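Deviations from the work plan: none for this task. Representative record:
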Amino acid sequence: MEAGPPGSARPAEPGPCLSGQRGADHTASASLQSVAGTEPGRHPQAVAAVLPAGGCGERMGVPTPKQFCPILERPLISYTLQALERVCWIKDIVVAVTGENMEVMKSIIQKYQHKRISLVEAGVTRHRSIFNGLKALAEDQINSKLSKPEVVIIHDAVRPFVEEGVLLKVVTAAKEHGAAGAIRPLVSTVISPSADGCLDYSLERARHRASEMPQAFLFDVIYEAYQQCSDYDLEFGTECLQLALKYCCTKAKLVEGSTDLWKVTYKRDLYAAESIIKERISQEICVVMDTEEDNKHVGHLLEEVLKSELNHVKVTSEALGHAGRHLQQIILDQCYNFVCVNVTTSDFQETQKLLSMLEESNLCILYPVVVVSVHFLDFKLVPPSQKMENLMQIREFAKEVKERNILLYGLLISYPQDDQKLQESLRQGAIIIASLIKERNSGLIGQLLIA
Amino acid sequence: MEAGPPGSARPAEPGPCLSGQRGADHTASASLQSVAGTEPGRHPQAVAAVLPAGGCGERMGVPTPKQFCPILERPLISYTLQALERVCWIKDIVVAVTGENMEVMKSIIQKYQHKRISLVEAGVTRHRSIFNGLKALAEDQINSKLSKPEVVIIHDAVRPFVEEGVLLKVVTAAKEHGAAGAIRPLVSTVISPSADGCLDYSLERARHRASEMPQAFLFDVIYEAYQQCSDYDLEFGTECLQLALKYCCTKAKLVEGSTDLWKVTYKRDLYAAESIIKERISQEICVVMDTEEDNKHVGHLLEEVLKSELNHVKVTSEALGHAGRHLQQIILDQCYNFVCVNVTTSDFQETQKLLSMLEESNLCILYPVVVVSVHFLDFKLVPPSQKMENLMQIREFAKEVKERNILLYGLLISYPQDDQKLQESLRQGAIIIASLIKERNSGLIGQLLIA
């Protein structure tokens, strides 16, 4: 699925292995251990991945190679690395990049704290880059920190949404068949042109499939295939499964993949990827307030309205109390959206507490975190000049925390005595909060919106 | 190109034919007349189009058939109809929809003022729907308002970005070869699975192409093919070019298409389409002010900053004077973004003038129009309470004009005596204006933003 149900497709932090943290992943890891017998403890080097990233992305129509194009200010390849390194049974990830992009790649790994990555020089073609990656994994390499895996996954730098489930499927199938790859139904009919540019024949769509990534191979099979294969194959070949078939007589098992395995190829694919990522990190909102005791607390009223107004969004609430212990957990669980209710004072006391907690965490490393600082005011009681002070303050805060990838907005919700009017202004506030979270518009940070 | 250079890909109003209004279109029409001899006057029925729209869009993973999925609140198929009807040498557009969607389709045609559209009942398969469309065009139909065209274009309801250039190419090629279709390079390698779900063989990517739309045929050729073809073809076939080849021995000419011919198939494609459309209607901003004489006018200062801050965006300025005659032209030329500078008074006098002009035009029928009502205030001189009044006012205006598809935002730009500070607040204002235009966020209408 492209944009899963709430939570299911929530992106993962790099570094700490997530397997077992969530249902799906847990099943996956468990079955890998049983089916494929690669209990991490016993066969630490069982599975590695090779990621060719030497392409120049000419189809994108932009100067930057597409794997380095930014999505929410982070290069596409970083999302793909994140998707691979969250799978703890993948021990090594070898990325093949061109010499000129080697430094860029190193800085990406450092900035986004990617783990278990090794870099090799890309070849002039995709196959040559993959071959270089395999050589780095082969034991016959001198001074290689890497050791030969039982199974190697080959994936694309520009397929950022690969899930642990499909990686497990191809690895398991590769152990049984020697080779395996993800496939998808064809969207368009495939035809063959004759020399004069006319239709020669068209293929029956139902009998063919698009070969996608990831693919997996017994290392010895694919390494042998690359050592045997001709220069023509290395220059013009596009299909690793074909090499295994041609040079090792290994018939790859084909595994149905999900739609989100698609390859970011054109500019429109970058747009699509950005929308998918925005949607995935907008599936949970945490309403933060100074206390959890008082059920009549206006924060809880707002929480209720958010729940009723925003379908498909998980709305929780947390108190800043207890040294924010529960809040720490929410941050660890990667909630990227916070609505901070300031009531005790008219300034940003609660918001500032939350901001310092976020700044101490590494939550903002991978995705921009939205913080909406909510203030309730009965316009009859508080002089508008008060608002101007708030406004000026929040603009400074916003500039400051933007440096740390936090998008801060202010929201004034009018608090009339009339209950019905209050409900209406809360509803209005919920709509504004939803808009801010959906768009993550950095041009509007520091603005004080009014509901 | 997916999102063309400023202007080049600007969407067209339906109804009035645009050919000749812009360079590209003019060339196109001219060469159609010379190359293909279909001077509209002489052969009014030379070219028609059939649009199968009976699909249920199961791949989209949403209940609504994808051709009816909304983009900026307008159904996808309306964008495709708009792309076809802007081409004045396409005389009739026959759309095949299922009985249950017939009324939906009629209301779409009415609401978005589509012209030259005829509806027929879709068949249970794509081929049967196309056949029904062709039958409606064939002269042997009783009570048909339509007459048989020389050439028929077959396109998809879910390929909204088709340009006149490629339509001309396939029509011209069809006149010469009897059939023609757009093709694209393959993105993935195509493979054939064996019965046991393993790789049987893979096709050499370079020797195959994806068959896309539009396609064009001499009407007699494709109609003959459909009349001859087997039930199996009608049930399971996917390729019209193949029918022409199989039943009329007509070898279709293959025409390289641009990337934006792609088919909206998955949810991610809807995201991509929305981003492309937003980008296309954000390529021009008109700064509206009460006078054009005064070059020192703060509106002109803002215009200059907008020009320097926003690359790839055409920034013009117009005066509301002369009964706004020039402004009328800008509206006719489909500028979807207005920055209205209010200086003479602190209320919304100029903005209201602009809003009524927009409401009288039909500019807002197809796309949401952004209006940013800009107010300059020296915070030292004007009491903040003044702002609150403005704010309350603009919220009401915004609600009102939203009904007519106008997104109204307020922007207060501080006007300090210090020139450098003024430049900075103008720059800040330009960033906010750019954000509002890029996102077209209806959740934030009526807000008063501060720069």
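Confidence is low (pLDDT under 50) at residues 1-16, 18-44 of chain A.
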